[in-house]
Structures are given as structure tokens and as C-alpha cells.
């Protein structure tokens, strides 16, 4: 059975996490994603992450394990090279979606901006993912996930130390932005059914991060009375057990809080669920109680009481959890070399059009020749383009000098 987006064609210029996350979600739902991988950008990333010190075999293994490269084909091409222009035009002419994450104006400066590409393909959905969007005073501001969280006010609420905020440890704004890009693309595709035309989808990390403060604003109309960071509810907690492990509880509903208090032997805390003046007393008492038993002992006790709880897993433990495995969120994927890599599955479950079977990512340029052949390019033309350095194959990865900005 075909996946939901089996006929959707995506040309993906993106490099940083929000963009590849978006195209991964689309690819897992069946979209035909072709990654435009710029050799100059790859060289920059290799220096940043140390990949330039790896052998071809090591880089191949790294790419195969990368979930964000899954179910995508790769064309190694320099958008700034004059000889590459027609190849990109031909790809866009046959595409439904173009996804890019260059700073505003950069891709347009190469001749591949929204207006130019819409002229080539009026039905094209052109999605731009940037830190602060295509408009506004900060539109040209550089930065990554923490900057978006800082600008949105969300970072000010993260962490449990009143004296300073803390990073989350996971790229929250990146992943939320990637999800919003998927939503924006699908909304634009639905609008195209009515209008017959594509449009520009402008997704900003700072906008996405702003949505993280929505619930705080809704529950605190007077922000001048907002509780200091770290002074959260007593009915949600992280508790250290006797064996040094951690347990998470979220018994916010009154009936669960009552059940929780009776289970830990502190019925006197039941009426104090929302009593801010007793917060420190309750937290200290509960911390002492949870320190008396091991994690496994508490898991059994709380399960029998039917309260809200979970062990705080290490990543390796989460990948072994029977529920995560049963839900298909842990997949063994075979790479081109025959080795098996473990990846997470698709979080979207559709009853009639399930996600595509996972195919491990390949080295940049592994599909250059076949993609061009599908566009109608003959072998002699492809070989000539390879000689110019405007395009390359996986076995011939080399950066090219070009005046195009990236």
C-alpha cells in the first residue's frame, strides 16, 4: 500500500536541523525527496563536526545512521555554479515543494528565490526556514536553537534554578520549527487544490519558539505575578531513588494527587496540593520518601496504585522499552553496505496509508547520476557536467570555487 505522500516531489536545499527534520517527516510519509547537497556547505559542516577526519567508510556509516537522511536521495551540486543552474531549474520544474534554509536573500542571489522559481513552476510550494523569518528587524540575524528560545522568552522559563535559566539538552525550537514547516507545506498544498497555485511558506524558528510561551500566558494573564522559574507545582516532580536513579511523577488531577499521597503515606499533603507556602516542605518530605526505595520498587508500588509515573530513561534504555518497540518507534534499518543501524520510527501512524519502509541514508551525491537520468539528461551531458565540478557523485566529492554566497 502506498504511503500518504507517495506522489509528492520535494527538492530539499536545507542543511540545518529544522529543514532536514521537515523533509524527513515528509519522506517517511512517502514523499520523493531529493537533497541538493552543496559541496561547499558540506565542507563547512565537516570542519565544524570533525567529519573531514573520517574515512569514506566512516562517513558512509555515519550517514546511514542519520535518521534525517532516511528515505531521501542525494544530488551533489553547487547552486552557485553557472553550469548547475539548468539542472536545478529542471528539478524545480518537476517538483511540488522546494525546501530551503539559507539566510533571507542568499538563494535569491543565486537566482533561485521564490519569485524566480514560481515563474518556472507556478504550482510550487516554496518553504523557507530561517531563524527569524523573511521579514522584520531580525530577519538577517544568524543563530541556532538557543537564540530562538532566548528571543521568544521560552528560555527564561527553562531549568529549575531561580538564579539562572538553563538549556534544555534537546533542540526544542529546531524540532518544533521542522514540524511547523511540515504543517505549513501541507496547508499550502491543500490551498493549491483550490487555487491551482503554489505560495511562499515563511517559517521562523523565533515564531515557533514563541508558541512555547502560549500556555504560560494563558494561565498567567498578569505576567508581573508570574512565579519565579523553578517554583513549579508540587504534584509534578523528579525524585531520586535509593539506587541513584530518577523517577518522574505528574499527578496533577486531584484524584491522582490524592491517590499518590496515600500511596507514599502522606495523606496530610492532600489538601496542600496548591499551597505555595508549603512547597518546600512537601518537596523535601517527598524527596526523603523516594530515597528510601529503589527505582524498581517504586515502579511496582506506583503501578499497583495506578498513579502517573515513569522512570527517567537513558536514551539506550528508551530504545529497549517494550512500549516504544511495540509502537514501531525503534527500527533496525539495513544500510547499503549491509550493516544494520538502529533508528527511531515515524511518530505518525496512519491506518490506511502507513509510513514508508525506512531506507538508510546514502553518501552525498550517491544518486546524482540516476536523478539526472530521470530528468532526461544523457550520459554524455552528465559526464560533461561532472567535469565542470558543478555536480559530483559520491565517489568524486570535491568542493568547487564559486562566487555564489552561501
From TrEMBL:
Domain of life of the organism encoding this protein: Bacteria
What's in the keyword line of the UniProt record? Transferase
Spell out the InterPro entries in the cross-references: CoA-transferase_III (IPR050509), CoA-Trfase_fam_III (IPR003673), CoA-Trfase_III_dom3_sf (IPR044855), CoA-Trfase_III_dom_1_sf (IPR023606)
* Keyword Zinc found: no
UniProt-listed Pfam families: CoA_transf_3
Quick check: keyword Transferase in the entry?
yes
A GO molecular function annotation here is: transferase activity
The protein's name in its UniProt record = Crotonobetainyl-CoA:carnitine CoA-transferase CaiB-like acyl-CoA transferase
Amino acid at each position: 500500500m502506498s504511503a500518504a505522500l507517495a506522489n509528492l516531489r520535494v527538492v530539499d536545499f536545507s542543511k540545518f536541523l529544522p529543514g532536514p527534520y521537515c523533509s524527513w517527516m515528509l519522506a517517511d510519509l512517502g514523499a520523493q525527496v531529493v537533497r541538493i547537497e552543496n559541496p561547499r556547505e558540506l565542507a563547512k559542516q565537516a570542519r565544524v563536526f570533525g567529519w573531514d577526519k573520517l574515512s569514506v567508510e566512516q562517513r558512509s556509516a555515519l550517514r546511514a545512521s542519520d535518521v534525517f537522511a532516511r528515505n531521501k536521495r542525494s544530488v551533489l551540486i553547487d547552486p552557485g555554479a553557472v553550469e548547475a543552474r539548468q539542472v536545478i531549474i529542471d528539478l524545480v520544474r518537476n517538483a511540488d515543494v522546494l525546501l530551503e534554509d539559507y539566510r533571507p536573500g542568499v538563494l535569491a542571489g543565486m537566482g533561485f528565490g521564490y519569485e524566480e522559481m514560481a515563474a518556472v513552476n507556478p504550482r510550487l510550494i516554496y518553504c523557507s526556514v530561517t531563524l527569524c523569518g523573511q521579514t522584520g528587524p531580525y530577519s538577517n540575524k544568524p543563530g541556532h536553537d538557543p537564540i530562538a528560545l532566548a528571543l521568544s522568552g521560552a528560555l527564561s522559563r527553562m531549568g529549575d534554578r531561580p538564579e539562572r535559566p538553563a538549556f534544555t539538552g534537546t533542540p526544542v525550537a529546531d524540532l518544533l520549527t521542522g514540524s511547523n514547516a511540515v504543517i505549513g507545506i501541507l496547508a499550502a498544498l491543500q490551498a493549491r487544490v483550490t487555487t491551482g497555485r503554489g505560495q511562499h511558506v515563511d517559517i521562523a524558528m523565533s515564531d515557533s519558539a514563541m508558541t512555547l510561551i502560549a500556555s504560560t500566558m494563558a494561565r498567567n494573564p498578569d505576567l508581573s505575578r508570574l512565579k519565579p522559574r523553578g517554583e513549579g507545582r508540587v504534584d509534578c516532580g523528579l525524585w531520586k531513588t535509593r539506587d541513584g536513579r530518577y523517577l518522574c511523577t505528574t499527578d496533577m488531577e486531584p484524584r491522582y494527587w490524592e491517590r499518590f499521597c496515600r500511596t507514599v503515606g502522606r495523606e496530610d499533603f492532600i489538601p496542600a496540593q496548591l499551597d505555595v507556602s508549603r512547597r518546600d516542605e512537601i518537596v523535601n518530605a517527598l524527596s526523603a520518601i523516594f530515597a528510601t526505595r529503589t527505582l524498581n520498587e517504586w515502579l511496582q508500588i506506583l503501578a499497583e496504585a495506578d498513579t502517573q509515573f515513569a522512570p527517567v530513561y537513558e536514551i539506550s534504555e528508551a530504545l529497549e522499552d517494550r512500549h516504544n518497540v511495540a509502537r514501531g518507534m525503534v527500527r533496525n534499518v539495513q544500510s547499503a553496505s549491509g550493516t544494520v543501524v538502529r533508528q527511531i520510527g515515524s511518530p505518525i501512524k496512519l491506518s490506511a496509508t502507513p509510513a514508508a519502509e525506512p531506507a538508510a541514508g546514502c553518501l552525498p551525491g550517491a544518486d546524482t547520476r540516476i536523478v539526472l537520468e530521470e530528468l532526461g539528461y544523457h550520459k554524455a551531458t552528465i559526464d560533461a557536467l561532472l567535469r565542470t565540478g558543478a555536480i559530483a557523485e559520491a565517489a568524486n566529492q570535491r568542493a568547487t570555487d564559486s562566487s555564489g554566497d552561501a
